[in-house]
Amino acid sequence: MVFSRMRASSGLPCAQADLDHVERIVTASGTSFARGMRILPADRRQAMFAVYAFCRQVDDIADGDAGVADPMAALEDWHRRVDGLYEGIATDALDRVLIVAIHRYQLQSQDFHDVIDGMAMDCGAPIVAPDEATLDLYCDRVASAVGRLSVCVFGDSSDNARRVAYHLGRALQLTNILRDIAEDAGRDRLYLPSELLTRFDVPKNPQEALYAHGLDQVGRILAQRARDHFREARKAMQMCDSTAMRPARMMAASYAPILSALQKRGWKTPDIAPKVSKPLRQLRTLAAYVK
């Protein structure tokens, strides 16, 4: 099915040209996100496309891929732009779709601002060995805040759904951090908490940390934290609307094998990719869909 051929009347009350524009932002990113959102009804899928397109644009600014001269100033512009959305002010197609999504699904402005602030943390000087509180704040902003927007679009804005966003966002982000230690070191970044690095005598220089003897212990502690967050997310999902939580269950099911593969490989050789069974990931994701 080609998403751009769906009529606006079956989804959000937006001009089809605006919906197509937002979809092009999503598909141009090369992500599998569009395929994953195929399980949603048209209106919720289009709203998620708009949320993803927003995240993609601010992430590109932070990563230096947006071609702006002053990334921090561009992110500040996005703060003002978000405020404008809640006053009904639109500057382009993405804004127009976001305004409709915001009102239909009661999306909170603070969550958009949190995402922007998370991207700002990656803008400028690289993050290197943040303290525990800063790492948790980073995970909340770049992952859990996106989750808070997402669960509302999925169809559950309850306190339990926000608990899902809190725990699942942290689980996914910690898994990403543990998977990408070597890649991040190549960009002079080290997202591992300074307290654990000090405890296990791991240098706080990204390149030197890669093969430090204590890195494996740091990785295993953070992996257990991620697993704990997955467990708490699953517990919260059981208290939520089952249909609304389907995308969240599928995301958790897709990521859990990555964390397991990382724990099996360990962090003595973090530059070697973990062996993740693709059929297992697909099977677990399918099981989460039909659950």
From TrEMBL:
Q: Which residues form a coiled coil?
A: none
Tell me any Pfam family this protein matches.
SQS_PSY
Q: Which keywords annotate this record?
A: Transferase
Molecular functions (GO terms): transferase activity
Q: Could you tell me which InterPro entries the record lists for this protein?
A: Isoprenoid_synthase_dom_sf (IPR008949), SQ_synth_HpnD-like (IPR017828), Squ/phyt_synthse (IPR002060), Squalene/phytoene_synthase_CS (IPR019845), Trans_IPPS_bact-type (IPR044843), Trans_IPPS_HH (IPR033904)
**Enzyme Commission number(s) from the entry:** 2.5.1.103
Q: What class of enzyme is it?
A: transferase
The record's annotation in NCBIfam families points to: HpnD
Q: What is this protein called?
A: Presqualene diphosphate synthase HpnD
- Lineage, opening ranks: Bacteria, Pseudomonadati, Pseudomonadota, Alphaproteobacteria, Acetobacterales
Gene that encodes the chain: hpnD
